[in-house]
Amino acid sequence: MDWKIVDAGASGCDDAAELHTLSWKSAYRGIVSDKYLDEDCAADRRAFWAARAKEWDPAKILLLIARRDDGLVLGMSCAVTEAEPEFGVLLDNLHVRPDLKRGGIGRALIAATGRWVAARAPGSAMYLYAYRDNAIAVPFYRRMGGEEADAGMYTFKDGTSAPILRFTWRDPAKIAG
Ligand SMILES: CC(C)(COP(=O)(O)OP(=O)(O)OC[C@H]1O[C@@H](n2cnc3c(N)ncnc32)[C@H](O)[C@@H]1OP(=O)(O)O)[C@@H](O)C(=O)NCCC(=O)NCCS
């Protein structure tokens, strides 16, 4: 399978919304409510990415899309510089198509995002949040060398509360791709 990672900019937001929905419906099943996933998720993610596209500033946000040569979106990652600067640059979404997990796409995306962070904000860490019960993402972030810390409980938009972890990479350029 031939694919590459592209810096998609605001024009990638529709693709990001679609993959985000597909991925949450799979990965968040059992963590957030079925009602949200089955009834609200698609519209909610479309609204989220439309808002992001509207206020796009390429100095402050990166959207990478992994795309197969025939156009299929395989994965995406997004980083934002100004969420919680005390922790560094936030990796706010990393998703691989559910049917193509474990093929090295997530690793390539997180490494490429780390290189962008190092270039855009030298000396800054990169961090993200993950549900403690996300049985795939947590081992993945550990394997990618993230330092983990409890970050309390997170209340999702549907009212569901669950414990989350914060993963930090102090030198994001060194994440092995
Ligand atoms: C987390 C995610 C991005 C990882 O992407 P991926 O392309 O599947 O992962 P990779 O193939 O690059 O895996 C790299 C390494 O991480 C580890 N890893 C990945 N998936 C794993 C799993 N299910 N169990 C244990 N280790 C795992 C392995 O060490 C793997 O290397 P290996 O396959 O050579 O052993 C992907 O599973 C995903 O999109 N999950 C759903 C969405 C999600 O939860 N995103 C995170 C929100 S915080």
Compact summary:
This protein has 177 residues and is of the alpha+beta class.
Write up what this structure looks like.
The protein has 177 residues and is of the alpha+beta class. It has a domain of 122 residues: Aminopeptidase (3-Layer(aba) Sandwich), CATH 3.40.630.30. The chain is built from four helices and seven strands; from the N terminus they run E-H-H-E-E-E-H-E-H-E-E. The chain has a seven-stranded mixed beta sheet with strand order 1-2-3-4-5-7-6, sandwiched between helices. A hairpin with an 8-residue loop joins strand 3 and strand 4. Helix 1 runs antiparallel to helix 2. The protein is globular, with a radius of gyration of 15 Å. The protein starts with a strand and ends in an 8-residue tail after the last strand. It binds coenzyme A. Coenzyme A binds next to helix 1, strand 4, helix 3, strand 5 and helix 4. The site of coenzyme A has 20 residues, from helix 1, strand 4, helix 3, strand 5 and helix 4.
